[in-house]
Write a structure and sequence with these properties.
The protein has an 8-stranded mixed beta sheet with strand order 6-21-22-20-19-16-17-18, sandwiched between helices. It has 10 helices and 22 strands. The longest helix has 16 residues. By secondary structure, the protein is of the alpha/beta class.
Length: 487
């Protein structure tokens, strides 16, 4: 017979990137007559440390552990029995429920220290600390209200509960947390969140049930420009309902926002997947795009454009890339995995001779070209396609390649092809340092060395951190064939 899971108490000894803690078991302080939690057997104290997610160093915690997990020594956090000595009250009442901001109770200076130490500890696996320069972490210019975009979901807080609008609850994907006091968004987001929920509650509208695939309301996407304080609202529904468009516009335009509503859009999405995409899109009010500014350039953002969610932090990140690039006058650059071409345009604006951006998503490339034209940049171009395939066709030799891959890093088959170009330098921008650490040995084997590494905190209150690494060729004067110019 399968035994019931056990629970035990422990102290969090350390946490490794991104959020897995090592818990040292201790004897629980309880009376011998204390009954175990429902569904659990009696308290047991393991003899070895257990790995648990979503904990902080120094916390005293209660852990649940299934019998079949004992060999792997993994457990699940049941509750925090005592906070760590450095913890402060969370400014967000939703933090423990939505799970998005694991570091809300950690002073910001401590967050920065942790992130820097975690990244350096990962780099220790492949690099000698004396072999490269590890620069101090850059903080986000603002700690709260930094997100320029949020995708809220309609649903209910609990099964068959009233209509809710917010974020998915941690560990319970079908439950919604109404994050009306979320601290990482501008107050206008909270006003719109509460207002839209009130509007559709009074209208007795149904939400789209991702299990039965019935219902009307799916998502509310809010985007804000730090440049001009414009606000874009995109209501995403299924086709199984009707929207009084003028009444909805009249209601939203009456809300007391600090910014100005630049556009109200209605997207119809009948996809079975729980993602924001469009079968059709209608502009109900204002403009279909929003303008954002970065380092002297302007970028037009559609409802579905990818853009760094921390605008002010993105300026710090891209300035870090520029600083590491140094003097790029008369140089030819590649920006691989370029997205909407933000880095490519900043490098072009920064004096590069030519910049070529490559991105898999065709719509992102279209946006990159439009923004380059908007900014009057003639020294950058973009191609749509898979980096793995396109690098075989490029008839040009780059002096510098910027890599900004997705979270999983560079495709293992694409990396040798990229390295074969043998540029003088690479700049690797990583949103997941474990992927960077996995890829570094391939660069070293190809004759490159890590010169500098610098972390940039784009997401205060969370476990995430950006890492920028500069790698240079150990023999930059090695013979190469210049294949041609960009065209």
């Amino acid at each position: 017979m399968k035994k019931a899971p056990t629970i035990f108490h422990g102290l969090v000894d350390s946490v490794s990137f991104p959020n897995k803690g090592t818990v040292i078991p201790v004897d629980p302080e309880r009376s011998e007559s204390e009954a175990p939690a429902a569904g659990f057997s009696v308290y047991e104290t393991p003899t070895k440390p257990v790995h648990v997610k979503n904990v902080l160093p120094g916390q005293k915690v209660e852990i649940g552990q299934s019998n079949h997990q004992r060999k792997r020594r993994e457990g699940t956090l049941r509750q925090v029995l005592a906070p760590a000595p450095y913890e402060v009250p969370s400014p967000c009442p939703h933090a423990q429920f939505c799970g998005g901001c694991s570091y809300q109770t950690v002073p910001y200076e401590v967050q920065l220290q942790w992130k820097q130490e975690m990244v350096q500890k990962l780099l220790d696996e492949v690099l000698d600390r004396s072999a490269y320069q590890f620069l101090p972490i850059h903080s986000s210019p603002i700690q709260y209200g930094y997100r320029n975009k949020m995708e809220f979901s309609f649903g209910d807080e609990y099964k068959d509960g009233p209509l809710a609008l917010g974020l998915h609850k941690q560990g319970a994907h079908h439950d919604i947390v109404p994050v009306t006091d979320c601290q990482i968004v501008h107050p206008d987001f909270r006003t719109l969140l509460s207002g839209v929920l009130d509007y559709f509650t009074k209208a007795e509208s149904s939400y789209y049930n991702t299990r039965s695939h019935t219902g009307f309301l799916r998502h509310l996407v809010v985007r804000r420009s730090f440049k001009d304080n414009g606000v874009m609202v995109n209501l995403v529904t299924s086709s199984a309902g009707t929207l009084d468009k003028q009444a909805f516009v009249d209601y939203l335009t009456s809300l007391p926002l600090e910014g100005k509503l630049s556009g109200i859009l209605h997207t119809v999405n009948d996809s079975l997947a729980d993602v924001v995409q469009a079968d059709s899109l209608e502009v109900l009010y204002g403009e279909p795009d929003l303008t954002e500014g970065l380092l002297g350039l302007n970028f037009r953002l559609s409802p579905f454009s990818f853009f760094q969610t921390n605008t002010l932090g993105a300026e710090v990140l891209y300035q870090t890339v520029l600083d590491m690039a140094g003097d790029i006058k008369d140089l030819t650059l590649f920006d691989l995995y370029c997205g909407t071409g933000t880095i490519a345009q900043i490098l072009a604006h920064g004096g590069a001779k030519q910049v070529l951006g490559i991105e898999l998503i065709a719509e992102a490339v279209d946006a990159a070209r439009e923004n380059a034209a908007l900014n009057g940049l003639t020294n950058c171009s973009f191609q749509a396609g898979d980096v793995l395939k396109l690098v075989d066709t490029l008839e040009v030799h780059p002096d510098l390649i910027v890599l900004d891959p997705p979270r999983d890093g560079i495709h293992p088959k694409a990396l040798p092809k990229i390295l074969a170009y043998e540029p003088d330098r690479f700049i690797y921008v990583s949103c997941k340092p474990t992927s960077l650490v996995r890829d570094i040995p391939a660069f070293i084997e190809a004759g490159y060395k890590v010169e500098k590494v610098q972390c940039v905190d784009m997401f205060p209150g969370t476990v995430h951190v950006e890492t920028v690494a500069l790698l240079s060729h150990s023999n930059p004067d090695s013979t190469r064939i210049i294949k041609g110019e960009l065209h």
